[in-house]
Structures are given as structure tokens and as C-alpha cells.
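Below is the data:
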Amino acid sequence: MQSKAKTVGRYIASLPKERQASIQAVRRVIVKNLPQGYEETMQYGMISYVVPLRSYPTGYLGQKDVPLPYAGLASQKNYMSLYLMATYGDKAGEARFKKEYKASGKKLNMGKSCIRFKSVEDLALPVIGKAIRRMPVKKFIAAYERAREGSSRRH
């Protein structure tokens, strides 16, 4: 369910009251742990944390007008989602994240890079904060470029 909101504030205000608190709590964890150089914006109809074009002018998938997404936070029809792009395509990083999450005692409902949750109480927020903090911009760009290079060799 993509929002047409142009700002994070409007996006949050448009959510059902029962979801606003959960989205705001996760957002606080992200913002507190976000390495310097990323920016919060709206992208793909959700709250997004991106590598700005001034830092990575190549853009996402070579689209020079689309900043490289690092994380996203969205309210979907049946659940809320947290997208952690740094765990996608990094087998060791994903395994570490899943191990830390399991150790938290919380149940992880995760797709490729998407963690689905019904309320903030479902999440291991310290583990999420650590995952966000783990990847400085330059390291993320390098990992993204390695992944793109690897996928182009497979085609």
C-alpha cells in the first residue's frame, strides 16, 4: 500500500492511530543508529533512508534520479514492514542478523530484506539498531556495487 505523502510527517499522520506509535518507535531507533551520510526521505511510498545522489550520483540501478535505498519503513495492508537492504545479498551479514535476532527471544518474520511486524512489541529493536548502525555509507555503496557486478556477470 504505497502512500502518496510527500513528507515523513504527512506519511505518519496518514496512518491509522494504532500504527503511528509503532512506526514512530521504529523510526526513532533507525534515526538514532543511522550512520552519518544517509538521509531520511520518502521513496517508493514509504519512509526511506537513502544514500543521497550527491554521495552516489550513479543512483539506484543506474537511475541518476533515484537515491540508493538503505532502509525503508512502511505500513502495509496487513502488517508493517522494515526493509534492511544491507542484509539482502550479504549472506554473512544476514546470518549474523538472524542469529542476533533469535538470541533476543523475539520471533523473526523476514523475507529477503523485509521484516514484517504487527506492532513494535514484535521487534527486537536493539538488534535492528545494531543492523542499521553496522553499515557506513561507503561500505554500503561498495557492497551494493559488488552485488550489482556479481548479478551482471550471471546474466
The longest helix spans residues 137-154. The two ends are 31 Å apart (CA to CA).
